[in-house]
Design goal:
The structure holds two protein chains of two kinds.
Chain A: H1 15-18, H2 20-57, H3 62-66, H4 80-110, H5 115-129, H6 132-144, H7 152-176, H8 180-188, H9 193-221, H10 248-256, H11 261-297
Helix pairs in contact in A: 2-11, 4-7, 4-9, 4-10, 5-7, 6-7, 7-9, 8-9, 9-11, 10-11
Chain B: H1 3-41, E1 51-52, E2 57-58, H2 61-92, H3 95-110, H4 113-140, H5 155-179, H6 183-191, H7 196-225, H8 228-233, H9 251-258, H10 265-297
Antiparallel strand pairs in B: 1-2
Helix pairs in contact in B: 1-10, 2-5, 2-7, 3-5, 4-5, 5-7, 6-7, 7-10, 9-10
Classes of the chains: A mainly alpha, B mainly alpha.
Chain lengths: 298, 301
């Protein structure tokens, strides 16, 4: 029995089917809309990259990479000390964050059942959402205010805090993803838990951990906010982390908001360097991740 | 347990305890640092709107207002674009297109904040002053939101920059959440004769609703705490005005801008209290977001 709305027309189609044409048009429009949104998101990156590359490339030369900043009004000069400071500060931060992050990751992976590890995981996730400027205030309160001077080391401390959450959670997952049989095999051969973890499990998990480390370094490479009141900046070739240090990202910030065209030009050059560094690190992380995946398949 | 194992366990425990202490220390230090300000101004700090270092009268309202407005603009712009992009990447795009597009959007997340700020200051702000601003004023100038002089730097410019910065977050997490929706649902929907678009908008998106909302809240959390890019384009003025073209201030940018210049103890303490407010708010926002994302995708994924 058919109701009027289901009546079949002269071509043999029900009204419901005739509406399909309109539904198909909606579907095409919708798909186009979704494509546009994806294109906007990806296009934004290309636009920013384009500007930074065009404006920045002119500023980059050997002197820019190797010289000290010149005073206002003196043309030329570079960000050599900022690059050096960045490397020292990130190196120190990595040296502190890797052991601590790994140990916590190992703890969560091996002993990680119950309320305390669950709380630790939650804290780690909370830390990853804390604004970097608040972490900078912490570094200031712990390492700058009591010593009464700014220092590169306090910046390293802030960077370490920023790197930790990613390292902790990724090393936990990397260690967990090493098959239990591998660990049991090592234990069956008479290895202690310590040796099995250090020499069998960790090396297996290494590519994934290096991926996380590269991403963590990429995250802090462009980080500027906590540097304002930790590393503070310097006009000299400062190599002692006990003193205020120049950092590339901080120089970009200071030059960008300065009224001098020469400095603004250098800000674009510095921004280009930062972007290249961050992209190389991200690409490296992607490459390592692919290796990590392959390693687990094998 | 062998001595080596016992030592190993001790070191591992020690590291974890240190990690927990660092996070606890972060909170404790922020509270201690802001104590003089909390003692002096009490809870009225949050709703007082004077910010005057000369007379040492501090209230956080203008910065809270600036933070809320810029973050709201950002999420309003980023949510739609991000969710649609996620739908496209997860359900519509062929693999050869989805992989490079995802990669580009992920790189967008890696661009340093200071680079966004630089671009915002020299490209976006002039564009807002000469093109976007006048167009909006022409169309909607009768509302207080779009009236008044257009400086280029201000709430709207900061909101747009923030939107660009959080689109990758919203897109990446929404895509993961959408991809985690069981295939059965899509197949059941397709078997009823729906188009792909209908399946995506009426079956998959409603099923992923909570997780996508979580992705947006996580993006909001990023926007609230973002510092350097906002500091460069918001104009840095502790005032509350209805116009989106007006310069303003956010919690994070006032700290970035004034902390090293603060001379009196109470001034520094007031700035740290702003940091404490930011810290507490971002913890609440992030915890909410994670609970929502986990409810769809699972915590391990």
């Amino acid at each position: 029995m058919t109701t009027p709305s289901d009546a079949i027309d002269e071509r043999g189609f029900s009204p419901r089917y005739r509406r399909l044409g309109r539904r198909r048009i909606y579907a095409s429009l919708g798909t186009a809309l979704a494509l546009c949104c994806a294109a906007i998101a990806a296009g934004a990156l290309l636009v920013i990259l384009f500007y930074v590359a065009v404006q920045g490339i002119g500023a980059i030369n050997w002197a820019f990479l190797t010289q000290l900043p010149h005073p206002v009004g003196v043309p030329g000069g570079g960000v050599g000390n900022g690059i050096l400071g960045m490397l020292i500060i990130i190196g120190l931060a990595t040296a502190m964050a890797v052991p601590l992050g790994l140990l916590t990751g190992i703890y969560l992976a091996l002993f990680g059942r119950g309320a305390i590890p669950e709380a630790l995981r939650f804290l780690s996730d909370v830390l990853s959402g804390v604004p970097s400027i608040a972490i900078g205030l912490f570094a200031y309160a712990v390492l700058v205010a009591p010593l009464k001077h700014f220092s590169g080391f306090s910046a390293s401390f802030a960077f370490m805090m920023l790197m930790l959450p990613l390292l902790v959670r990724t090393s936990e997952q990397a260690i967990r993803s090493v098959p239990q049989t591998v660990r049991e095999g090592a234990l069956a051969l008479g290895m202690s838990n310590f040796r099995a973890t250090m020499f069998i499990v960790l090396p297996t998990a290494r590519p994934a951990i290096i991926t996380a480390l590269l991403l963590a370094i990429a995250r802090v490479t462009g980080e500027t906010a906590p540097l304002l009141f930790t590393a503070f900046g310097s006009q000299f070739w400062e190599t002692s982390p006990n003193n205020p240090m120049a950092v590339l990202a901080l120089q970009v910030f200071n030059y960008a908001i300065s009224p001098y065209p020469n400095w603004q030009q250098q800000a674009w050059g510095g921004a280009l360097l930062l972007i290249v560094a961050v992209f190389v690190l991200s690409l490296g992380a992607r490459f390592m991740l692919r290796r990590a995946m392959r390693g687990l398949d094998a | 347990m062998s001595p080596a194992d016992r030592g190993f366990a001790a070191i591992v425990y020690g590291g974890s305890v240190l990690f927990a202490l660092l996070i606890a220390g972060l909170f404790v230090e922020l509270v201690l640092g802001s104590w003089p300000s909390i003692a002096a101004f009490g809870p009225s700090f949050i709703w007082k709107s004077s910010w005057d270092p000369i007379t040492s009268k501090f209230g956080a309202l203008p910065m809270i207002y600036g933070t809320v407005v810029t973050s709201f603009i950002a999420i309003a712009l980023a949510a739609f674009v991000g969710i649609m992009a996620a739908v496209f990447l997860a359900d519509f795009a062929p693999r050869w297109l989805a992989t490079p597009l995802s990669f580009l959007i992920e790189l967008l997340a890696a661009v340093p904040s200071v680079v966004y700020g630089l671009w915002g200051l020299f490209v976006l702000a002039p564009f807002v002053r000469t093109t976007i601003g006048p167009a909006l004023q022409h169309a909607l100038g009768w509302t207080p939101l779009f009236s008044g002089p257009i400086y280029g730097v201000g709430l709207l410019t900061a909101g747009i920059i923030l939107a660009l910065m959080i689109v990758p977050t919203v897109t990446a997490i929404s895509r993961d959440v959408i991809a985690a929706i069981p295939r059965d649902l899509r197949e059941a929907s397709a078997s009823l004769g729906t188009t792909k678009w209908e399946t995506a908008t009426r079956v998959v998106l409603p099923a992923a609703r909570v997780g996508i909302f979580g992705a947006c809240v996580l993006g909001l959390g990023r926007a609230l705490g973002e510092t350097i890019a906002v500091t460069m384009v918001i104009g840095n003025r502790p005032e509350i005005s209805a116009s989106l073209f007006a310069p303003s201030y956010t919690l994070a940018s006032v700290i970035a801008n004034e902390f090293t210049e603060a001379t009196t103890g109470i001034y520094i303490s007031a700035l740290i209290e702003l940091g404490l407010i930011l810290f507490v708010v971002s913890i609440i926002v992030n915890a909410l977001a994670r609970l929502m994302i986990w409810s769809v995708r699972g915590s391990r994924a």
